[in-house]
Every structure is written in C-alpha cells, then in structure tokens.
Amino acid sequence: MPRLGVNIDHVATLRQARGGKEPEPITAAVLVESAGADGIVVHLREDRRHIQDRDLRLLRQILKTRLNLEMAPATEIVNIAIDVKPDLVTLVPEHRAELTTEGGLDVIKHKDALKKVIAKLRKNDIDVSIFIDPDAKQIETARDIGAKIIEIHTGRYANAASLKEEDAEKQEILNAAMFAKGIGLSVSAGHGLNYRNVREIAAMREIEELNIGHSIISRAVLVGLENAVREMKKAISPSPS
Fold first, then answer.
1. CB within 8 Å of 198: residues ≥ 6 apart
2. Which of 70, 94, 169, 206 is labelled catalytic?
3. CA 93 → CA 118, 139, 140, 212, distances in Å?
4. Disulfide: which of 71, 88, 166, 214 matches 160 by Cβ 3.0-4.6 Å?
5. Candidate list 10, 50, 153, 191, residue with the active-site label
6. Catalytic (active site) residue 110
C-alpha cells in the first residue's frame, strides 16, 4: 500500500478568498495527520495565492509526519526552503495564470539550472523530488542531475475522455514507474487523482507514495476532513483477496 500525502493548499485557498484567518491550514494539517495521512504537502507559490510563509514555518514546527514542500526552482523559494528545511522538496513548474499545475517539469530543457538547485538543496540535507511527466527521457535526465525521487504526473490519466484513453495513460504511468524504479529512483505519483480513479494507480507496486489534495478537500466539505482522509486511505489500500 502506498503512503498518502495530503495537499492542504485548498484550505488556504478558501481562507485567502476572504483575506481572513479561517479556515486555518495548520488545524487542517493536524486533523489530516490524526486521520492517518503519512505526510502533508503544500505548494508555496511565488505569488502566494494560497499557502503563506507563516503557514510553512508553523507546519515545520508542529508536524509529526513528513512535510513535502512543492515549489518552483526560483531563488527566493529555494532560500526559504533551505531556511525552513522541509523533509522533502518537490520541484514543479509554475505559471502565474494557471489554475493548478498543468504538467510535469521539463527537466531536459532546464537541466543545468535544476542541477544547481538540486545540489544546493541536497547540500542542506533536503531530499529532492521532481514532478515529471511519465516519459523515460525526462526521468533519466532527472536521475542524471541528482534527483533521487520523482513524482509522476497523473493528470492525463485523471482527465482521460474515454476508457481506451484512460487505459493507455495508465500503461504510460506504469511503464514510467517501472523504468524509474529500474534506474534506482523512488517513485511517487499525483495530480487529479480522486476516490474513483485512484485504485488503479495505487495498485502499481513501484509507486511508493500518492500525493492527493483537491479531491480530499472537496470531499471534506461533505463528510469532514478526517473522514475524507480515512476514505482515501481505504481507497488506496489493497482489496481483500
């Protein structure tokens, strides 16, 4: 059974919609942990549209599980990461106009800059993952520039318009996970996964962790945050034989 990392960005999105203090992402993180999540994921964006610097620093102080900081490889954010020291940094692409991350980081195009960022983070004892499309050349380049972990982008699978397309995307993810594992990388996956489509990905033995946010926070509106996390834990657990 893969570990479950829960992204709480959208708790902060709701808070920022009114510019007030509620709901509090720190309280949400405590509830998520108490419900059995294996880690908390937050994305500190350059425009600070949801998670704020104070959220990150408070989370580092109170979390009992793992803190995974998603971030663009931008100098300001790299320096914050080095100061806060999350357990893991996941490097992601970031564009100001996007509603959510739209695809994997192009490691081949940005390999020289990424190599420097990875070396700087690892020098400060921070593990580094790269959010990446299920493409062998991108994965191999990620390994070559120093990444030890990749997170496979599952968005195309989640957004497939037909069962045939979904099956094809699922096979791409499996092939990528097997390839990454074969060249010595640890493998996570995430983006667009929900209670209906997650089981197929969770069943892939090569995938060690799933990072899921939007569907859990959406479900929490109806059943409560702790119940939503428990339901996702059940969804990713192996079916009884």
1. 210, 212, 232, 235, 236
2. 70
3. 15, 15, 18, 17
4. 166
5. 191
6. no
Answer yes or no: is 69 within a domain.
yes
Question: Could you identify the residue written with the tokens 């390839």?
Answer: 179
Digit-coded pLDDT (tens) for 2-47: 999 999 999 999 999 999 999 999 999 999 999 999 999 999 999 9
Number of domains in the chain: 1
Q: Which residues pair with 187 in a beta bridge?
A: 150
Q: What is the CATH number of the domain that holds 69?
A: 3.20.20.70
Known catalytic membership, residue 70: yes
241 inside domain:
no
Please report whether residue 228 resides in a domain.
yes
For 83-101, write each residue's pLDDT tens digit: 999 999 999 998 655 445 5
Which among 132, 141, 143, 30 is positioned nearest to 90, based on CA atoms? 132
- The catalytic residue among 43, 50, 94, 151 is 43
Assigned domain for 52 exists: yes
Q: Can you give the residue range of the structural domain that contains 56?
A: 3-236
Please give the structure tokens belonging to residue 56.
């990150």
Closest to 35 (Cα-Cα) out of 176, 233, 237? 233
Tens-place pLDDT, residues 162-201: 999 999 999 999 999 999 999 999 999 999 999 999 999 9
